[in-house]
Design brief:
The complex is a heterodimer of chains A (147) and B (590). Chain A is mostly helical. Chain A contains six helices and two strands; from the N terminus they run αββααααα. Chain A has a domain at 14-84. In chain A, 69% of the residues lie in helices and 3% in strands. Classes of the chains: A mainly alpha (147), B alpha+beta (590).
């Protein structure tokens, strides 16, 4: 009873749509089938692309994992080779030892150990190269005086 | 159409079990009933076409709703929801356990894929040849086991834990029936270095000792995130500490030795070594007692290094100052017991002299004057009565005296009658030299989490102790520890061990507890070094000879790593020579 007005209202439009035919086949059905076909193809394409992407991601992650393992292996090898006890015994073997305090100097002390070469007057460029090292060597103090 | 009663076809559970039916089921069955027979009702009302339309319309709505919901759900999944589907969800760097590193990211422990060797004898043509070849490529495989597997019927595991190199060696034999299966294993590339403090983890990925056990959950959580877990250790400091400790222990022919380096301001342990060591990959071949981490599990009567605590308590309570006099002209009598000095001066001494000459008589008098309550209070504050707060589960409780009578107090004042771990010792030294704040010792980079430092002695006391420690190196027993220009302060300790109920001088303990640099602000950069030599075999066995030189070498070599510059102070130049201008004219020792 309540649905009757709805049917009467839309009947003409719907009727026309369903009556629109070609060679006895409704256009609405042809359009529907075409849409469904397009949808199937596009969904298939999207799924195939997604599968390809996801296998590529898996492949990359596998690569990352393998590389990570290789990096860890190499890091472990580095750590093994750099064992403090090993390094110490190797350096002792070739006669190396901690540097004596008297042979240590800070950057600021460099000029004290060996004064900066006195820049000679630019007027005599020919003399300068020979003179400068001689001055520096003479001025270098003996290690005892530095202490 | 039919005359029979349609109610007869009503769904079975409806009528018969009336009493047990819920109202919902009753409603459902009636609705189905009405729908099923609506067609007939409509025909009865002479409006069959209307009923069909209603049905089609209803079905249309239901299907539209379902498909609409599906379409919305699919679109949401495809476009909006986070892409955490297959493959991309798990961190490709995730591990069962994160790498363990030092504070600068140097590797201490890592997970490496090892391989299990499986052999299927049915696929092997020449078993004798295979046996010989595998034995040659993999010498550590058990001959018996290999023979049993090759002689068997089924595919069996012959050996676990093959390294990638070993796997390659066996693989290159190109034997049929030999396969490998990967297994994730913990590897400790440092061999004997830091082996006690790193500890180890079982094949199931659970920590069983050392830092691996102490930080087990955090290491596993870090592994899941693909991160590493940093410890407070500085591998450079650790290396120097181990090498110098081993050299000193071998030189002193000690039974065991302990070395600890800490940052007194943060409580971080920068190096911790226990000698003898062993190789973590071959724990079974470890020498007797080598697997014990003496730094946190070894109990020792520390001897004179305890005088620092007694003097600190005396200064802090106001019971004594640097000029308070103690009569050490004769032995101190407590009941039947006579307390004598090792380096007897036989005179009246100030507190400073008591400390510099390491007078048992002086510190005993001070301890007895302070009484048991004060002594116990200060020992508790300095953490000497409880296990060290370091995270290691091996951290042992001290052996403390039951009675605190005068004789015990005297013994405690110079480090007898209480057995503590070296970790406790270094923790207490830190508190006395960082301005008086008790900061828990920690192996965590950045120090213990959420630690609330407690003021255990005043800043003034801390300053005085620093001064005393330095004077003891410059003028007292710690001369061999004076690394040039690094302002080392420290106290020697020498104790005899209790053997068969009596203190035996041939079983001694030599120690040196140092801090450097002692100058600068109280909260400035400062590091503590503790060296303990257990039962040195050479003479003299005192801390000044067996432990102090190692402290000097260690401070000398690690100062550069820690950014401590060489500088002169009032006693020594930056190169370690005596300051010539300094003349003790007044003879007051200042």
């Amino acid at each position: 009873m309540t649905t009757a007005p709805f049917f009467t209202y839309s009947r003409t439009a719907l009727q026309r749509l369903f009556d629109w035919k070609v060679r006895g086949v409704r256009w609405i059905e042809i359009i529907g089938v075409a849409l469904v076909a397009i949808m199937i193809v596009s969904v298939y394409a999207a799924k195939a692309a997604a599968a390809r992407e996801s296998s590529r991601i898996a492949q990359l992650e596998q690569d990352i994992r393998e590389n990570g393992q290789r990096v860890r292996l190499l890091r472990a090898e580095v750590a093994r080779l750099e064992q403090p006890a090993r390094l110490e015994s190797l350096s002792r073997q070739i006669g190396m030892a901690p540097v004596d305090v008297h042979r240590q100097a800070k950057e600021a002390q460099l000029t004290e150990l060996k004064p900066m070469p006195v820049p000679t007057a630019p007027a005599h460029p020919a003399v300068a190269p020979a003179a400068a090292p001689a001055v520096a060597d003479d001025a270098a103090p003996a290690p005892e005086t530095v202490r | 159409m039919s005359v029979q009663d349609h109610r007869y076809h009503r769904p079975a559970p409806g009528v018969d079990l009336q009493g047990r039916l819920s109202p919902f089921w009753r409603w459902l069955s009636e609705t189905v009933w009405r729908l099923e027979h609506g067609f007939e009702r409509a025909r009865a009302d002479a409006r069959p076409e209307e009923d069909t339309r209603v049905r089609i319309f209803l079905i249309l709505i239901v299907f539209s709703c379902v498909f609409g919901a599906l379409a919305i759900g699919a679109s949401y999944k495809a476009l909006i929801a986070e892409a955490n589907g297959r493959g991309s969800g798990i961190n490709p760097n995730a591990l069962v356990r994160g790498d363990l590193t030092d504070r600068n990211g140097e590797l201490l422990a890592t997970n490496i894929i090892h391989y299990g060797l499986y052999i299927d004898p049915a696929e092997i043509w020449d078993r004798d040849l295979a046996y010989r070849q595998i034995r040659r490529a993999l010498p550590r495989i058990s001959a018996e086991r290999l023979k049993r597997v090759l002689g068997g019927e089924r595919r069996l595991i012959a050996l676990t834990g093959l390294t990638p190199q070993e796997k390659a060696a066996v693989h290159d034999l190109a034997l049929g029936g030999v396969t490998f299966e990967p297994e994730d294993r913990r590897a400790y590339p440092l061999g004997t270095s830091a082996v006690h403090l790193i500890g180890d983890a079982d094949t199931g990925g659970r920590g069983v000792s050392g830092a691996e056990l102490a930080f087990n959950d955090e290491i596993r959580a870090a592994g899941q995130r693909g991160e590493s877990f940093p410890l407070s250790i500085d591998l450079r400091v650790q290396g120097v500490l181990e090498n110098e400790l081993a050299a000193a222990a071998i030189k002193a022919q000690a039974k065991g030795a302990v070395g600890i380096v800490t940052d007194v301001q943060t409580g971080e342990v920068l190096g911790m070594a226990s000698w003898p060591t062993f190789n973590s990959s071959n724990r079974n071949a470890a020498p007797d007692g080598a697997t014990l981490n003496r730094a946190v599990s070894g109990h020792y009567e520390m001897g004179s290094v305890f005088k620092t605590f007694t003097v600190a308590a005396g200064l802090d309570t106001g019971r004594a100052d640097m000029n308070t006099l103690f009569d050490a002209s004769q032995a101190f009598q407590i009941g039947d017991r006579k307390i004598k000095d090792f380096h007897a001066q036989n005179r009246v001494m100030t507190l400073e002299e008591v400390y510099l000459h390491s007078s048992n008589i002086g510190t005993s008098q001070l301890a007895v004057q302070m009484g048991p309550d004060t002594m116990r209070d200060y020992f508790r504050r300095l953490g000497l009565l409880d296990a060290s707060t370091i995270e290691l589960k091996e951290s042992a409780k001290p052996v403390v005296p039951r009675r605190w009578d005068n004789s015990t107090l005297a013994s405690l004042s110079f480090g007898y009658g209480i057995m503590i771990t070296p970790a406790q010792m270094v923790q207490a030294m830190g508190a006395l030299t960082n301005g008086g704040r008790m900061i828990p010792l920690s192996l965590r980079k950045g120090g213990a989490r959420g630690a609330q430092p407690q003021q255990v002695v005043t800043e003034e006391t801390s300053r005085t102790i620093l001064d005393l420690l330095r004077r003891n190196v410059v003028k007292g027993s710690g001369g061999f520890a004076d690394a040039p220009g690094l302002r080392v302060g420290g106290k020697t300790g020498s104790a005899n061990k209790l053997v068969n109920g009596r203190y035996d001088p041939s079983h001694a303990l030599g120690s040196f507890a140092a801090v450097f640099p002692v100058d600068g602000p109280l909260n400035g950069k400062r590091y503590a070094i503790l060296i303990v030599m257990d039962e040195p075999g050479t003479y003299p066995k005192t801390g000044a000879y067996v432990a102090a030189p190692a402290v000097k070498n260690i401070a000398d070599r690690i100062a550069g790593f820690l950014g401590v510059e060489r500088r002169e102070d009032r006693w020594r130049t930056a190169l370690g020579e005596k300051v010539p201008e300094y003349q003790d004219v007044a003879g007051d020792g200042l």
